[in-house]
Design a protein that fits this description.
Blueprint: E1 4-10, H1 16-27, E2 32-34, E3 43-50, H2 57-61, E4 65-73, E5 75-77, E6 86-89, H3 96-104, E7 108-112, E8 121-122, E9 125-126, H4 127-132, E10 142-155, E11 158-165, H5 171-182, E12 186-196, E13 199-200, H6 207-216, E14 223-224, E15 235-238, H7 243-247, E16 252-253, E17 257-258, E18 268-271, E19 277-283, E20 289-295
Helix pairs in contact: 1-6
């Protein structure tokens, strides 16, 4: 069974779940998960976790993401993108400078109302299920952060923007909000995810390419080992006589492991004496005891 993360290029027409299903067929293994949903018409970077790395799915979902989107001004739809039903059209009277000011005004923190066509749940029901049934419910605004926003091209009524944002940000809704601020409405025409944490578009592989690499026997070269995700953390290696502690997922004392480490270093990568990656541990306040935060050791022991 393969363990690690592979940077998949999700093509248009596939859901994120479709990609996982196809990866299970390609690799002949069930333990596979994705790290954050992309709409079927969106494309781009979708890190897929294999084997032990599925424990990373929630951690990567929380990471910063970067998108390139085309905002179409002058149109509002029920889905906030061009796949939906057109609700209103308006003339676009704003000039380039006014559009630029409106786009840049969303830099930083803002409260975003999630769209009805989303997988968020209200009273146990997904919003998109309610929307398809013709129901609209009140949604609470959620704090999001636009870390960076840039205009790449402007050919009104279309504006191509690059956005880096926090977890939970809907780019469709950002497009809608920009259009609303300009008074002419707006929706998203296309979306390309170019980065999730350190996974970038240039390194992503289509499902066809992954199949070819599998057949060539070189796919392993494109699977990122689990511990590489934590390469910025200091490393501790257990003394052989204390391996059993981490094999059983127990805390251990600082002097039971080798390696340079100060309490200010925070979380640490832990390996047993044979250099098998165990997981991420965090110190107590004194720094003398380290407790497991995320353990990736397989069940072979």
């Amino acid at each position: 069974m393969a363990d690690g993360i592979i940077n998949v290029y999700k093509e248009k027409g596939f859901t994120s779940h479709d990609v996982v299903a196809k990866m299970r067929g390609i690799l002949k293994q069930k333990k596979i998960g994705h790290t954050g949903t992309l709409d079927p018409d969106a494309e781009g970077v979708l890190p897929v976790c294999l084997g032990k790395a599925t424990k990373l799915c929630d951690m990567l979902t929380d990471k910063t993401k970067t998108y390139e989107a085309v905002l179409l001004l002058g149109m509002e739809t029920d889905t906030q993108d061009t796949t939906g039903t057109v609700l209103n059209t308006y003339p676009v009277e704003a000039g380039e400078e006014e559009v630029k000011a409106a786009v840049m005004s969303f830099l930083g923190h803002y409260d975003q109302v999630p769209p009805m066509y989303s997988a968020l749940k209200v009273d146990g029901k997904k919003l998109y299920e309610l929307a398809r049934a013709g129901k609209e419910v009140e949604r609470k605004a959620r704090p999001v952060e636009i870390l960076d926003i840039r205009i790449q091209r402007m050919d009104l009524p279309r504006v191509t923007i690059t956005v880096s944002c926090s977890k939970g940000t809907y780019i469709r809704t950002l497009c809608y909000d920009i259009g609303k601020k300009l008074g002419c409405g707006g929706c998203m025409e296309s979306l390309l995810r170019t980065r999730v944490s350190d996974f970038v578009l240039e390194d992503s592989l289509t499902l066809t390419q992954i199949e070819q690499l599998r057949d060539d026997g070189s796919l392993g070269e494109h699977i990122l080992a689990v511990d590489k995700v934590f390469s910025s953390y200091p490393q501790l290696v257990m003394k052989e006589e204390f391996d059993k502690l981490v094999h059983n997922g127990n805390p251990f004392m600082r002097n039971q492991a080798e390696g340079e480490y100060q309490i200010s270093d925070g979380p640490v990568r832990v390996y047993d004496s044979t250099m098998e990656f165990i997981g991420v541990y965090e110190p107590n306040e004194e720094g003398s005891l380290l407790k497991p935060q995320k353990v990736f050791l397989g069940g072979s022991r």
